[in-house]
Hints:
- By secondary structure, the chain is α+β, with helices and mostly antiparallel strands.
- The protein has helices spanning 13-40, 68-83, 88-102, 129-132, 135-146, 157-165, 177-187, 207-217, 257-273, 275-278; strands at 53-57, 63-66, 195-198, 224-225, 233-234, 246-250, 280-285, 288-291, 297-299, 306-311.
- The strands form two sheets. It has a seven-stranded antiparallel beta sheet.
- Strand 4 (224-225) and strand 5 form a beta hairpin.
Amino acid sequence: MGQQVRYGRRRSHGAGALIAAVILVVAVLIAAWTLLPRLFTPRETARTAEEAYCAAVSSDGARRTLTPDQAQNAALIANIAVTRGLPDHAATVAIATAMQESRLTNLDYGDLDSLGLFQQRPSQGWGTAEQVSDMTYATNIFYDHLLQVPDWETIPVEDAAQEVQRSGYPELYATWDAMARAWASGLTGERSADVTCALEPAISSDADGLVAAIGGTLPNVNVSVAPPNGKTGTNNGAATNTASTTLTITLPDGLSADNRTRLCWQTAGWLVTHARQYGIDALHADGMDWNRKAGTWTGTETAEQTVTVTLA
């Protein structure tokens, strides 16, 4: 008998390669399905100092933006008006004037011998170079001159500004009318939750400096400060020495509803515009919340007696 030869089935190498290729394609598709949304979804990045801004909302709903430094100077102008018992219109005229004269910046130069926020000239009797370069002095002497203008409360902003400044370009003050009205009404508390800032992350805070500033800058509003550690200080007394991360500002009793609301939002506006300087992360005022990252006020306005400040 001859040798029996068995023929077995030959393994198909082509079929194995095809299966491996299919598995690889499926794996790639699964990976792509998982990773592509991450690749094409923008990552939330922290705002830089150059991207930071502040804004006030005008009566027509428009946002009037300033840099944080400009907003802080506008707050000083508005606060001095409130401290002196002047109406919102005084702050409007002053902010419009400073915006035209210096872009709300305390300049150390100007035309001829003009200096400072309002570009006042020492040679024209406004004070010494050192005095007009001090923003508090410059603002107060501007108001002194404004109060001497007949009918300043009723004439157009640009006319009142020109009566004080005697500019060669009086029509330019009108450029800033709407912007100045928005900031003046927000910073004096005439309008609620209208002043906000969107800022870069705070890397440090200065609770002691903030308490001292409230005491020195807002003496007429009679706010008290009650840090969580139990130490207290008022704007009429010594500043509290505390490194606490939360401050509670208590509004005085006995105010009318309108005056309490104005005081609350005047205080909140000042705090927002000084958030960069003192490392304020968040505020809670009259049922509404602000934080430096979002840069907006949220919530429903509800009358409260305190403003809470959270520091970095």
